[in-house]
Amino acid sequence: MELLEEETWNFRKKRFCYELCFFYEENYQKIISHQEVALAFLNYKNRLWALRIWAIKTKDGKFTSREYEKKYQDTREEKIIYTNLRSFDEIKGYPIQVNPELMNSKKISVEEFFEEKGTYEHAFMDNPQNLYGKKEDFIEINQQLFPEKKRLEIYLWNTEFTQYYNGGREGLGAYLWTIYDVEYKKFIVIDASLIID
Predict the structure, then answer these.
(1) pLDDT at res. 77
(2) Which domain of life is it from (predicted)?
(3) Which among 10, 73, 106, 132 is placed 20 to 30 Å from 66, CA to CA?
(4) Can you give the pLDDT at residue 65?
């Protein structure tokens, strides 16, 4: 499994209210690959968290793009912490901790995923951090990301296996989807935490 960094960064620059990440997966093994990519996504998020801490502490939020890129490359060794905790309600802050034994998923149909006023649309349209919130933006993004919807295999994951989604669970919801395009052998992982400020 390979993180497609350039594609992911290009999408990040658009600053939408949910995060997503692209991965290439040649050796697709259904649910096993979906769980692996969910954990790889959290590893990526852990790196970004370490980067934010660096930017605030050492640079007071002021840095060049070259400094930022170098520091991002330096975070390759930042990893999530695997634990046997059964609850993450009291765990706060960096680094991300996970218990894979608590991970549960539900395979959902393409129709359910893209359902009007469904969970995925709710995560975009009703997100308090959403600066856009327009239906046209939501439709356009999905046309770019998913031009051939019938090729997709989609899982919705619980979020209780990590403290990373505590804010969303305490707010309006926390969501994690792993979506595989069988033709392009590519995962798109999307998460959204609907946190009330």
Answers:
(1) 85
(2) Bacteria
(3) 132
(4) 80
CB 47, CB 74: distance < 8 Å: no
Rg of the chain on CA atoms, in Å? 17
Which H or E run contains 19? strand 19-24
Please name the residues in contact with 88: beta carbons below 8 A apart, sequence gap of 6 or more.
Answer: 97, 99, 160, 161, 162, 163, 166
Q: Tell me, what's the pLDDT at 59?
A: 66
Domain residue ranges in the chain: 1-191
What ranges make up the beta strands (E) of 25-164?
81-82, 97-98, 105-108, 152-157
Residue type, 165: Y
How far is it, in rounded angstroms, from Cα 112 to Cα 99?
28
Domain 1-191 has CATH 3.40.1000: yes
pTM above 0.70, yes or no: yes
Amino acid making up residue 106 = K
- Residues of the chain predicted below pLDDT 70: 13-18, 59, 61, 127-133, 195-197
